UniProtKB/TrEMBL annotation:
A molecular function (GO) term: flavin adenine dinucleotide binding
Co-factor requirement: [2Fe-2S] cluster; FAD
Stored Gene3D superfamilies: Dihydroorotate dehydrogenase, electron transfer subunit (2.10.240.10), Nucleotide-binding domain of ferredoxin-NADP reductase (FNR) module (3.40.50.80), Translation factors (2.40.30.10)
Name listed for the protein in its UniProt record: Dihydroorotate dehydrogenase, electron transfer subunit
Species whose genome carries this gene: Peptostreptococcus anaerobius
Residues reported in the UniProt entry to bind FAD: 45-48, 67-68
One Pfam family matching this protein: DHODB_Fe-S_bind
Amino acid sequence: MEYRVLENEYIGEGMYYLKVGGEFEAKMGQFYMLRAWDKFPLLSRPISIYRIEEDGISFLYKLVGAGTNIISNLKKGDPIKMEGPYGNGFEKVEGKVALVGGGIGIAPLYMVGENIENCDAYLGFRERPILEEEFGKVTSNVYTTSGDTLITDILNVEKYDYILACGPTPMLKKLLEMTEGTKTRIQVSLENHMACGVGACLVCTCKTHSGNKKTCKDGPVFWGEDVIL
């Protein structure tokens, strides 16, 4: 379906904030397939939902290729095509929860903070923290790192009943190692490359203990004890 851009701006750390007008419903951790072109690039771009408000839906994205370059140049009122929401998102949990995001992986965690109580946010960045104030509105505490200090360096997983995480694969692997042998359970949102978004093309296949799964359809969120990274 075609919608209209309400806002589109660079916010730092290589990330852009895009808001699209309309009425939307989705679960935390789901994504949409976005495109603002006809034939090239061939594929739409999978973008995680950042936030849903009464007047529209917003996303965070990074400029990494031709598709996101086109999206980054959209102005208020420009048309954009979106299909979704797709994927299995984060499961709602009860207890003390840590939301752990690295880079653009912070995007889907905002909705988690809106929907789950008693959350702390741990956000890791390359150069400087962003969106601390926004995450402070939906979580109890916000902790950030940048530069040579990794977000996993300051996290004590045993303080929490659950970890809900999204970010680079090395970060997710480290979190799985940190929670192994503890009572802390973890859900991870994978950032695998996707093409179709509906499980038809197998581009985003990932390994689990119950066989290969499609990140776009079976995920992108998996329980840590199930996925193999």
